[in-house]
């Protein structure tokens, strides 16, 4: 159990703001709260750093994108 490693892993998967699937499709790279660059190539299937986006859900606190792998 390594809480620091878990915190870093989660932080690399979270971005500030409300980013929709359409925003991701625009192809502009984002920077996670952990400093990781997150990019989705424009056109074709929606991929984030090579991992497929399986679903996107709007919530009260933001948008949750279900990704089929670690980014």
Secondary structure topology:
Blueprint: H1 3-11, H2 21-25, E1 30-31, E2 37-38, E3 47-48, E4 51-59, E5 62-67
Antiparallel strand pairs: 1-2, 3-4, 4-5
Walk me through what this model shows.
The chain has 71 residues and is α+β, with helices and mostly antiparallel strands. The protein contains 2 helices and 5 strands, in the order ααβββββ. Strand 3 (47-48) and strand 4 form a beta hairpin. The longest helix has 9 residues, at 3-11. The radius of gyration is 12 Å and the shape is globular. The protein starts with a helix and ends with a strand.
The amount of helix comes to: 10-25%
N-end to C-end Cα span: 21 Å
- Average pLDDT, rounded to a whole number, is 90
* Major sheet attributes: 3 strands, antiparallel
Helix and strand pattern = HHEEEEE
**Spatial arrangement of strands, main beta sheet:** 3-4-5
Number of strands: 5
Q: What would you report as the Rg, rounded to the nearest angstrom?
A: 12 Å
Structural category is alpha+beta
Measured by DSSP, the beta-strand proportion falls in 25-35%
Number of alpha- plus pi-helical segments = 2
List keywords for this structure.
20% helix, alpha+beta, 2 helices, 71 residues
What's the short version?
The protein has 71 residues and is of the alpha+beta class.
């Amino acid at each position: 159990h390594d809480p620091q490693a878990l915190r870093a892993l989660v932080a690399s998967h979270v971005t500030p703001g409300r980013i929709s699937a359409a925003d991701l499709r625009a192809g502009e790279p984002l920077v996670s709260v952990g400093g990781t660059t997150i990019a989705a190539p424009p056109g074709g299937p929606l991929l984030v750093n090579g991992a497929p986006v399986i679903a996107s859900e709007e919530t009260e606190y933001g948008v949750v994108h279900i990704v089929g792998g670690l980014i």
